[in-house]
Amino acid sequence: MKTTNIKDIARLAGVGVSTVSRVINGHPDVKDETREAVHAVIEKYNYIPNNSARNLKRTESSNIGILIKGLYNPFFAKMIQTIEKTLAKEGFSVIIHYNTEEHRDIDAAYEFVVEKRLRGIICLGGDFDQVTDVDIERLDIPIVFTSTEVPSGASTALFSSVIIDNEKAAYRATEYLYEIGHRHIGLLTSGGEDRSVGTYRTNGYLKLLGNKGIPKQEHYFEWGSYTFESGYEATKRLLEKAPDLTAIVVISDVMAIGAAKAAKEFGREIPETLSIIGFDDIDYAAYYNPPLTTIRQPVEEIASASAEILLNVIQGEATHQHMVYETQLVQRASCAELL
Q1: 338 is a domain residue
Q2: 268 with 177, same domain?
Q3: Read out DSSP for 33-69?
Q4: What pLDDT tens digit does each residue of the chain (339 aa) get?
Q5: Residue 306 belongs to a domain with what CATH number?
Q6: Tell me, what's the pLDDT at 28?
Q7: What is d(CA 136, CA 59) in angstroms, rounded to the nearest whole number?
Q8: 34-41 contacts, C-beta under 8 A, 24 or more apart
Q9: d(C-alpha 234, C-alpha 223), whole Å
Q10: How many Å is the maximal CA-CA distance in the chain?
């Protein structure tokens, strides 16, 4: 007979694995009716909670998790390869999970830890700004936040981070367009559940406008997700309501390539009648026609540092560390000077 596990209890009670664990471990942040429902299922199926997170920290484990926000993203592809190579040298295996669920990313991380019995975890992207000490402590394994924004309300002694200054980088992208004569500058950013990277890059754009005395135009904004199709559709909406735009800042190269396709369909030649600047410098950016001006992130350095920091913490050779890498403006052919 199949042994009932924590995922079965969660399914039968109609809650998440993290909620079942909180009930088992006596956390107060669970509604009474939810707690009672979980206990009823546990009693009915005679479940013995011996797989809670505090019992999952096994020194013999060689599995490291990489939690990636959303579906496949070209920006993370090279990063994953570097992380895998670095960890493999020390005898660790990598398990990758793409989180497409609507619940909190930190809860997805917890469920990943519980299911795979991970020794450590690296989170690529995602929204962790509101994560608390309690959230991190219940993971009970070392965690590194990479290419996202770090928790603002949690102790930095509990986690590591390897990031860039997203606001500063977006400011520089917008400033470049200003320097070459553009004043009608739109923004293609992320919305919905993205409260971290997209928000900070938007703030960088707005800060440049404010410093240069350029009024914020609500119709110069459009929102999408980190896909080619989303960038394409969002740009069509943007150009329909703001045909006077001469340039667009796009918060990812993937979206920027989609934006360029939409612009051409609107009869806007790039860069002759519309300049586009992206973000990340993925491999596609240099080979697109025209090659994409963008903000380069040092992908391999970020990935290598993330893996090495995690290894050092796991092996007890160092405490948690926090690194901020500089970005670089890469000028190609998708932006033109306004005379």
Answers
A1: no
A2: yes
A3: HHHHHHHHHHHHTT-----SGGG---TT--EEEEEEE
A4: 456 777 788 889 998 877 887 787 766 667 888 888 888 888 888 776 654 444 444 445 789 999 998 877 889 999 999 999 999 999 999 999 999 877 789 999 999 999 999 999 999 999 998 899 999 999 999 999 999 989 888 999 999 999 999 999 999 999 999 999 999 999 999 975 566 799 999 999 999 999 999 999 999 999 998 899 999 999 999 999 999 999 999 999 999 999 999 999 999 999 999 999 999 999 999 999 999 999 999 999 999 999 999 999 998 888 999 999 999 999 999 999 997
A5: 3.40.50.2300
A6: 66
A7: 19
A8: 37/13, 38/9, 38/13, 40/13, 41/9, 41/12, 41/13
A9: 6
A10: 77
Residue 337, Cβ density class (10 Å: 0-12 exposed, 13-18 middle, ≥19 buried)? exposed
Question: Do 187 and 263 have their domain in common?
Answer: yes
141 DSSP 8-state letter:
S
79 and 157 part of one domain: yes
159 and 172 fall within a common domain: no
- If asked whether residues 35 and 15 sit together in one domain, one would say yes
Please tell me the distance from the alpha carbon of residue 201 to that of residue 251, in angstroms, as a whole number.
7
Provide the number of structural domains found in the chain: 3
Range of the domain at 286: 166-297
Structure tokens at 157: 């002694």
The tally of CA atoms less than 13 A away on the side-chain side of residue 209 is: 18
18: domain CATH number is: 1.10.260.40
**235 and 310 together in one domain:** no
Of 233, 272, 285, 264, whose CA–CA distance to 74 is shortest? Answer: 285
44 C-beta neighbours (distance < 10 Å), count: 11
Tokens read off for 16: 């998440």
317 plus 241 within the same structural domain: no
pLDDT value of residue 192: 56
Indicate whether 339 belongs to any domain.
no
| Domain membership flag for residue 333 | no
Residues 232 and 284 in one domain: yes
Would you state the structure tokens that stand for residue 225, as one six-digit string?
């997700």
Check: CB of residue 200 under 8 Å from CB of residue 148: no
Does residue 331 form part of some domain? no
